[in-house]
Amino acid sequence: MELITPPFLKKGDTIGIIAPARKVSPSEVEPAISLIKSWGFNVVLGKNLYKEYNQFSGTDIQRASDFHDMINNSDISAILCARGGYGSVRLLNLINLRDFQRNPKWIIGYSDITVLHGILNSWYMVETIHGIMPYTFPPDSKENESTISLKRVLFGESPTYKTSSHPLNRGGEAKGLLTGGNLSILYSLSGTDADITTEGKILFIEDLDEYLYHVDRMMMNLKHSGKLRNLAGLIVGSMNDMHDNTIPFGKNAFEIVKDAVEEYDYPVCFGFPSGHQDPNLTLILGREVTMKVNDKTATLQFSPHS
Predict the structure, then answer these.
(1) 104: cis peptide before it, omega within 30°?
(2) From CA 168, how far away is CA 253, in angstroms rounded?
(3) How many other C-beta atoms can be found within 10 angstroms of the C-beta atom of residue 214?
């Protein structure tokens, strides 16, 4: 089943910036504003964008209010989340996504924003963009591979990415809707309205700053809940800055994932350049993709919008 594709952008359109999770400062967002304007877009900031409430960007009510304002503003063509951290899940009972479904626009972000990807892809059947956020834009407002890939997708390109083979890759070809995001967030959403469905789909996962045993715990959750059994394929992005205990776990993050899917026969790509890294290539979640993995390269091709 095809998901709803929000309208792509053109020069002169407006992007709204909100912070549904951790707080941000003007100095962390302004370089992104300059670069986005250089693409030909206007920028509108959420009225509570720079508010502070403990570690959050304002209270839950304030953050949800910014989201609703952007949803209901017909002049806003896309909603860019300023950063991740933690907090998006606290908004799920405070935002009316039926309004969003009737007038969809692109939601952009990664990490904690996986909460929004999950509920919009699985429950409301709307495509979203897993991509770089202002907090991680280049501080000098210059282009890099991550920002270029986001710009191209916003203007309607259906990208094809090719990356070098990884020794843990499992070859093959698969086609299916792309789903997923941050592994820790996917694990935390299990059993909620924002939980993802994976049967027949290509799952993307990535993570940062986790203990190796916890990566194993999360993969076991996906395995025993059936989310790994009937995949069409698996793409593993960055797994950076992992931690170990005094008694070593004995495997790195990629090896943990490999062991969790060892019994299945679908293609698996490790080290795909997306997630908490540079480059963080832009993914269209909910779009049909074709993945091809061989002993030399791995390719991910997004189907054109029909």
Answers:
(1) no
(2) 12
(3) 17
Beta bridge partners of 233: 202
Count, residues in the chain: 306
pTM of the model: 0.97
Which of 3.40.50.150, 3.90.70.10, 3.40.50.10740, 3.90.550.10 is the CATH number of 14-154?
A: 3.40.50.10740
Query: How far is it, in rounded angstroms, from Cα 300 to Cα 235?
Result: 9
276 part of the active site? yes
User: For 147-194, how does the pLDDT look when each residue is reduced to its tens digit (9 = 90+)?
Assistant: 999 999 999 999 999 999 999 999 999 999 999 999 999 999 999 989
**Which H or E run includes 203?**
strand 202-208
Selecting among 88, 111, 122, 146, the annotated active-site residue is 111
Active site residue 111: yes
From the candidates 28, 130, 149, 206, give the one annotated as an active-site residue.
206
Residue of 77, 130, 274, 276 with catalytic role: 276
Answer yes or no: are the C-beta atoms of 31 and 139 closer than 8 Å. Answer: yes
